[in-house]
Amino acid sequence: MSPQLDLTAFRQTLGRFPCGVTVVTTRLGAEDHAITASAFSSVSLDPPLVLICVDRKNRFHDAVLASGEWAVSVLAESAQNAATWFATRGRPLAGQLDKVDHRRGVLTGAGLVREALAWLECRTWRVYEGGDHSILVGEVLGAQINAERDNPLLYYRSHYGALLHSAANEKSTLVVRDSIVEDAVAYPGLPPTSEEAPSA
Ligand SMILES: Cc1cc2nc3c(=O)[nH]c(=O)nc-3n(C[C@H](O)[C@H](O)[C@H](O)COP(=O)(O)O)c2cc1C
After folding, report:
1. The domain 7-162 is classified under which CATH number: 2.30.110.10, 3.40.50.2300, 3.30.160.270, 1.10.3720.10?
2. What is the pLDDT of residues 36-45, one digit of tens each?
3. For ligand 1, is residue 28 a contact (CB within 6 Å)?
């Protein structure tokens, strides 16, 4: 590890990347395993691939490697309790899905959280080492959106949050954009904008 890297700054930096929240589930024999996971990403359209990064310390890690199949529920804002539950270390495995309204994926049998915007069912395609995590790339077997939910659960600086959809928020977004443009113009290292550039 580079002696220059300040680990606190590294953690704080990662926490400033706003992201969505998923619950990833797998079924090994008769046992359900699950984690709350924000390290989820799209990878490829052809073939259809997504990835998750799983901490080797999690019980979920060995279970998902052994089962080879898993499901991703992209959580709705209303699923914060589910996110908290599946992030609770040491919770009992037996019956853990029963605490959350769910159904079974038809392709993998893995649990799908009902309070979600969308669901994916995947088969492990490749596994890569990623330090203290494993990077699982999954071939997407099935994908489905939930037409009844449109508000995502977000995570930023260790806090859950939500999107604002009001007209007022649209205005405030424009104000923020204006101020960013003003900052950029004021920054001496940037080339002048077309308005500032001297005419030829
Ligand atoms: C918002 C949030 C995001 C998380 N993202 C991940 C993740 O991407 N990968 C991971 O391995 N653990 C992640 N965790 C931690 C796991 O959810 C947590 O360790 C879980 O309790 C492990 O369950 P297990 O012991 O049954 O495997 C996250 C936790 C929270 C609160």
Report:
1. 2.30.110.10
2. 999 999 999 9
3. no
